[in-house]
Amino acid sequence: MTARDGGELPYFFTWSKQRGVRGLRMTGGEGVYFDTEDQGRMLDMGSLTYQAALGHGHRRMIDAICAQAQRLCVSTPSAVYPEKRALAELLLAHAPEGFTKVFFTLGGSDANENALKIARMVTGRYKVVSRYRSYHGATLGAVSVGGDWRRPLAEPGIPGAVHVLDLDAASGREGKTDIPRVLELEGNVGAVMLEPVVGHNGVLIPDADYYARVRTACDAHGALMIADEVLVGFGRTGRFFGLEHWKDAAGERLVPDMITCGKAITAGYGTLGAVLVHERIANYFDDHVLAAGLTHYAHPLAIATGAEAIRIYDEERLPEHAAALGPQLASALEAIVDAQPKALRHRAIGLFGCVDLDRRVVDFGRLAAALEARHVFVHLNPSLGSVIVSPPLLITEDELRDGMNRVAEAIDEVCA
Ligand SMILES: Cc1ncc(COP(=O)(O)O)c(C=O)c1O
């Protein structure tokens, strides 16, 4: 079988036409590198699907899975066991004050799905405001609330999904929010769901007063604020949660009503998501049925990987490490823009960055080949012209320099 015949395999590939689809023949990996049968050893400057924040073959993560498998491997949603409590406490310790409960899910989409259901149950309202420049997951509710090309393909979606276009990458820094005005005009909005830093839709970083305005408007109109930290949570932006970069109107830590998690919650070593819930929402369910559940709720192997990943983020101070390497990443991206007229602008925060190429003239097929030839993996979003970099958080300065050199060379080659 050649590398290009993935469409002939007896399973689907996601988000693709199956004919001619290209699979990644992964065999293993170590640190910031993963190994493939056909492309050799790749420097992972994307953390795979943004989840591999601890890189590949991490010994502590593998040991945590083995140890949990020996103790308790199959459970039921109502099971009570120590690691389940430990993970909930670790997550809540990083949330703002007042967060008291965790609802576990299998990934990011169903974390958002369940946050939307909780918002409906608590507010009695079904409208949700979100951005066009966003992705919140693939399940029907989450994809309806998302705004990128994946939503129209699944429509009709859930009723009440209202989208706003208030972040504009072209202006460099992003625009002021329309959300307060939309909440006022729309009426009866139950929730606002936002990625604190927009992820795969182009690393958009709102202005300093953006979330204070959203929080104030949510309070004024009775809407819950849901922070989708699935992609940027767990240190990616240089803080444990992305929303920690913003303050509320009083200058205090911003407190949403729910925080959704996925991806790096297990660094990719387990299948897990979570909804962290503020007490003012959680208390509602003391006397009302929480009409939500999953057979694999809090699966022990997933829970063990989540708890171990967070211990490693904390012990190795990886959010701080991401913050410390942020300027190095930002200046490497800036150098690409300075050197290359077809590179229009860059944005970066912590170990998360993006350069927008002029998509009218840059061939993203050639760019993918040029990157592959240099054995470096990043995210390409051809519909926006974006090249997105999000390496494992444990990357060293030298590895980051090497990775960005490879990315810059590939861009130079296709822009020449
Ligand atoms: C911001 C955001 N939310 C939710 C999701 C969905 O997560 P999952 O694919 O784990 O269901 C993603 C996935 O890319 C995401 O980037």
Amount of beta strand: 15-25%
| CATH fold-level label of the largest domain | Aspartate Aminotransferase, domain 2
Count the helices. How many? 12
Based on Cα principal axes, name the global outline: globular
CATH class of the largest domain: Alpha Beta
SS class: alpha/beta
The H/E string reads EEEHHHEHEHEHEHEEEHHHEEHEEEH
Radius of gyration: 21 Å
Strand line-up across the major sheet: 4-10-9-8-7-5-6
Mean pLDDT, to the nearest integer, reads 95
> What is the CATH homology-level superfamily of the largest domain?
Type I PLP-dependent aspartate aminotransferase-like (Major domain)
Bound molecules: pyridoxal-5'-phosphate
Major sheet description: 7 strands, mixed
Give the distance, in angstroms, between the N- and C-terminal Cα atoms.
Answer: 34 Å
Number of strands: 15
Helix-residue proportion? 25-40%
Can you tag this structure with a few keywords?
416 residues; alpha/beta; Aspartate Aminotransferase, domain 1; Aspartate Aminotransferase, domain 2; four-stranded mixed β-sheet; 15 strands; binds pyridoxal-5'-phosphate
SSE blueprint:
Elements (H helix, E strand, L loop, with lengths): L25 E5 L2 E4 L3 E5 L2 H4 L8 H13 L10 H13 L4 E7 L2 H16 L3 E5 L8 H6 L15 E4 L14 H8 L2 E6 L15 H12 L2 E5 L29 E4 L11 E6 H4 L17 H16 L2 H22 L3 E7 L2 E6 L6 H10 L2 E2 L1 E3 L4 E4 L7 H19 L1
Parallel strand pairs: 3-13, 5-6, 5-7, 7-8, 8-9
Antiparallel strand pairs: 1-2, 2-3, 4-10, 9-10, 11-12, 12-15, 14-15
Helix pairs in contact: 2-9, 3-9, 6-7, 10-12, 11-12
The chain binds pyridoxal-5'-phosphate (PLP).
